[in-house]
Amino acid sequence: MKKILPIVLILTAFAGIAWFYQTHHAKNESALVLYGNVDIREVNLGFRVGGRLSRLMYDEGDKIKQGEIIAQLDDEPYRNQVANVSAQVNSLKERLKLKESGNRPQEIAQAKSLVRERETATANAKQLFLRSERTLLIKGISTQDRDNAEANFQENEARLAAAKQNLALLEAGFRVEDIAQAKADLRQAEAALATAELQVKDAALTAPSDGVILTRAQEAGAILQAGATVFTVSLQSPVWIRAYVHEPDLGHIHPGTQVKIYTDSQPDKPYKGQIGFISPRTEFTPKSVETAELRTSLVYRLRIVVENPDDALRQGMPVTIKLTSDQSSAPSSAQAL
Question: Is residue 260 domain-shared with residue 115, that is, in the same domain?
């Protein structure tokens, strides 16, 4: 019995050590580890309009803030265009007011006076014509004089009709179609003015987001076409990690999974992040027939959003991504970029 007791104690101790090792080893093995690279977005900035580049406010390596003016074109031609179109708009506004309000009372009064004058002249011409007809019957005048009196009467009648029509037009004002045309001309000019004002604004290049100047592609004095690259900027936010995961591990991750990101330069300072995107397809073209062994080697691309990025994260930097054991329960496997 005394010999059996030590053996039992030894076996119990070995069992405890094995249980401790197995438990902690399984816990450590359950944490999924991925490898990837920092993926920072870059943008080429240029003017939406062309012109002579007058100033550049920043150089390579400078930090810029969203909304800051970082370059400026000579905007004098565009400001002159604004002044020209603005004058056209004002002229068309006054023309529209004139057509909507109608003719001035003085013009209508003048037309009425002309009608009365034509009426008087026509009445006199009519009397002369009637008198000439009676005189012609007693051979007091010649036929030619009678014809002249008739022609004078008809001419005055025509002038009176024209004066009455002119008065009617002045009193009626402008046609609806004329007013509609004036409004359309004004809207067209206002649209041209808005375009000219926008071109003045586009002559100033502003930063779309916080970032760092990577490349200064132009210098002051250059004549630029619209869209020509002036700066290449590395955006500070968002910062992504591109990593790949093997197919068997897809069941242990999902969008929103929290991770920790480690760099070789600062291994004791992890960054926080979460999985934001999992590619729905493999990066490699699958064969028509896959064996079970080949299917396990397929990988899927991940995009991990870094929640607390700083200047230490650089484009292309290799990183290690670790998932906690409560978010992963499969053996670790991944593929670097």
Answer: no
Mean pLDDT of all residues belonging to the chain:
81
127-150 pLDDT, tens digit each: 888 888 888 777 777 888 888 888
pLDDT at 287 exceeding the cut of 50:
no
* Calpha distance 110→106 (Å, rounded): 6
Q: Which domain holds residue 329?
A: 32-40+239-335
Residue 218 lies in a domain: yes
Q: What SS3 class is residue 317? A: coil
- Number of folded domains that form the chain: 3
Q: E strands within the chain?
A: 33-46, 51-56, 63-64, 69-73, 204-206, 211-216, 223-224, 229-246, 258-263, 271-282, 299-306, 318-322, 334-335
**Of residues 86 and 251, which shows the higher confidence score?**
86
Cα-based distances in Å from 63 to 53, 188, 233, 258 = 21, 42, 9, 30
168 HSE (CA, 13 A, CB side) = 6
Q: Residues 167, 107: one domain?
A: yes
The number of helices, as runs of H, and strands, as runs of E, in the chain is 6, 13
Query: Does residue 226 surpass a pLDDT of 50?
Result: yes
Q: 315 and 253 in one domain?
A: yes
Q: Are 330 and 248 in contact (CB under 8 A)?
A: yes
Q: Are residues 192 and 97 in the same domain?
A: yes
CA–CA distance from 298 to each of 265, 271, 274, 328, 335 (Å)?
30, 28, 23, 19, 10
Same domain, 192 and 112: yes
**Threshold 0.70, pTM exceeds:** no
- DSSP strands (E only) in 162-210: 204-206
Confidence of residue 13 (pLDDT cuts 50, 70, 90): low
87 CB neighbour count, 10 Å cutoff: 12
Residues 164 and 64 both lie in one domain:
no
Tokens of residue 5, six digits: 């007791």
Q: Write out the DSSP string of 235-268.
A: EEEEEEEEEEEEGGGGGG--TT-EEEEEESS-TT
286: which DSSP letter? P
CATH classification at residue 211: 2.40.50.100
Q: Answer yes or no: do 167 and 250 share one domain.
A: no
